[in-house]
Amino acid sequence: MSGLATPRLRVPRIARAGEAFEVRLLMEHRMESGIRIGAPSVPRDMLASMTVAAGGETLFEARFGNGTAANPFHVFWLRLDRTADLVFTYADEQGRTASATHRVTVA
Amino acid sequence: MTALLTRRSLALGTAALLAAPSVARAQASLRLVIIGGGFGGASAARFARDTYPDVQVTLIEPRTRFVTCPYGNLVIAGKRQLPEISFGYDAVRARGVTVLHDRAAGIDAAARSVRLAGGQSLAYDRLILSPGIALRWGGIEGYDEAASELLPHAWVPGDGGQTALLRRQLEAMEDGGVVGLAIPANPFRCPPGPYERISMIASYLKRAKPRSKILALDAKEGFSKQPLFQDAWAALYPGMIEWVPGNRDGRVVKVDPRERVLETEFGTKHKVAVANVIPPQSAASIAIEAGLANAGGWVEVDPVTFEAKAAQGIHVIGDANTAPPMPKSGFIANSTSRQAVASAIALARGGQPPGNPTYFNTCYSHCGDEYGISVVNLFRPGGQGFVETPNSGGISPRGDHPEQRRLEAVYADAWYKAITDYMFGA
Amino acid sequence: MTTSRRAFLAALALAPVPFAAVAEAGALDRAIAEATGGRTPTDGGVTLSAPTVAENGGQVPVTVTVESPQDGTLHVTAIHLFATRNPTPGVASFRLTRAVAKPEVTTRIRLAEEQVVVAIAELSDGTLRRATASVRVTTGGCLS
């Protein structure tokens, strides 16, 4: 067990070839940067990145800085030519990962 | 109540200042028209009538009885009855305010007149617009006006029907059922209101249906007086209330009114026994149709006079305006109504609005029986609009203070009586 | 969270603004230079939507939209976000491929105080575009 939460997705199950569909992601994580203004820092616990891949190929990637809010939330648009299993993977700065897979059937 | 006396003496002082300039001008009666007979409008009418005996004051309000939002949560919990929070306009009339029970259909800012639904046109020298909010039907998918008959909002009381409906549904619910609430993102009317409602429903359930639960699905990540509310819930209703913030998939985006299913942003479906859906809001339609509202649906106003930035001569008070960080509350509507009326009269007479105004707000919330909490803020014009007065205000302390909680519940009742007496009392 | 935030804001109000509270001018420039390889962005051709007044500085929704066809001719390859007055300026960087159908990303960021947020978009022809948005962070009254 990685200790990370399971990513939450809102992605359609069916899409038309080449047409844009919305992807909404929510990852529960406190995103503790460790920074305290005017006080000693606390232990850091941050997600480093999120990738969306299909068939081993990365479609979209995010790298997180200290300014990304807790429980990272993202909305973007993808398009596919054929049915694919989208794999959403979050990695933290310790190298632990959490993924979720979602099949989008292209009609 | 000390605060009420302070404001009243301030108001009389202001009146004295305005009467002082000796202006030799025609003594034609100034016509002040007020749209909306709620906390803003009824307060404006009272203040205008008390302070400017020679000004003609007309109040336009479609309803013959006003049901208050404050204390509606106590009716929902069965601690008050609807007639106790309903008020007529006889005393307003008796003071010499012309009360027209009609709907304002349109405003002609250039011609300075209001068109009533009944056909009459009313000319004004200055207009106070306090129309309240509109609910954004369709803001939550599936939640339209018809849906509110199945899943009440009880956020615009109207004739009290929504409040009574939610009460009946709770009474009819079987023990062990889940009461779901959908709570919107900011801005909305009465920031602590949904959490007082949760508390009051919990108080009823604890007594009458103790195996029941409350599921609060919130579009936000935090709320007004949150630590105090959560302390109270842990102490009074342990294990009964689950609050889900927006950043843990708490935002309700869709409802199925027939099945009573609340669906959140990430597709989680919650089927509940009773659902209270508080949808996103905007200024009431008359403000929007008059072209006064911004892209977000609220009216931007001058922080000293409350004139709509979009139209001179129209002073917009109450929930319809946007005045952050001031919250949308009845207390603020009442507090700001005095400055708005005094400014309106001063400007109409060619003078200056009163300077250095202070606006007050106290948000009282009932967490249970004899358990009240509050937060006090003072505001003034500043920055890009309004700012909090530095080193002012306060909040109930956390911790075990049963006597303070009991007293604050008493103060809340006293506030409600004082403000409704001010607006509607003889 | 809310009471500690009030204490945090109160502490900032009482003390002189600590240097660490504002991203050093150098840190911001370095972060932008690192993301852009030292190239100069042009203003325009990209929109950064953010609320003018944010009720909760810890969760500010922003959307970056680039005016680009996103077809074979020209597409957005990356979007970067920076907070000019956070203790550290980096917010996020997104890498877009042709599978990304619209040159648009929405996310939630955290802002330590009122400041300007900067978005920079990289396009497939090597050009860079920039947009900024000013966000005021305030507690929404009755919120304590």
Care to describe what's here?
The complex is a heterotrimer of chains A (107), B (426) and C (144). Chain A is an all-beta fold and 107 residues long. Chain A is built from no helices and 8 strands. Chain A has strands at 8-10, 14-15, 21-26, 47-54, 57-64, 73-78, 84-92, 97-106. In chain A, the strands form 2 sheets. Chain A has a 5-stranded mixed sheet, with no helix packed on it. Chain A starts with 7 loop residues before the first strand and ends with a strand. The model of chain A has no long low-confidence stretch (mean pLDDT 94). In chain B, 30% of the residues lie in helices and 27% in strands. In chain B, the strands form 8 sheets. A 6-stranded mixed sheet of chain B has the order 5-2-1-9-21-20, covered by helices on one side. Chain B has a 4-stranded parallel sheet with strand order 13-12-11-17, covered by helices on one side. Chain B folds into 2 domains: 2-62 and 102-135 and 282-357, 3-Layer(bba) Sandwich (FAD/NAD(P)-binding domain), CATH 3.50.50; 147-280, FAD/NAD(P)-binding domain, CATH 3.50.50.60. Chain B is of the alpha/beta class. Chain C has one domain (2-137): SoxY domain (Immunoglobulin-like, Sandwich). Chain C has helices at residues 2-14, 25-36; strands at residues 42-43, 46-49, 53-54, 60-66, 76-83, 90-96, 104-109, 115-123, 128-137. In chain C, strands 1, 3, 5, 6, 8 and 9 form a 6-stranded mixed sheet that branches. In chain C, strands 2-4-7 form a 3-stranded antiparallel sheet, with no helix packed on it. The radius of gyration of chain C is 17 Å and the shape is globular. Chains in contact: A-B, A-C, B-C. At the A-B interface, β1 of A face loops of B.
Q: What is the number of E strands of chain C?
A: 9
Distance between the termini of chain C: 10 Å
Beta strand % of chain C: 35-45%
* Distinct helical segment count of chain A: 0
Q: What is the total domain count of chain A?
A: 1
Task: Note the main attributes of this structure.
heterotrimer, B: 426 residues, alpha/beta, FAD/NAD(P)-binding domain, 2 domains, 6-stranded mixed sheet, 4-stranded parallel sheet, 26 strands, 30% helix, C: 144 residues, alpha+beta, Immunoglobulin-like, 3-stranded antiparallel sheet, 9 strands, 38% strand, disordered N terminus
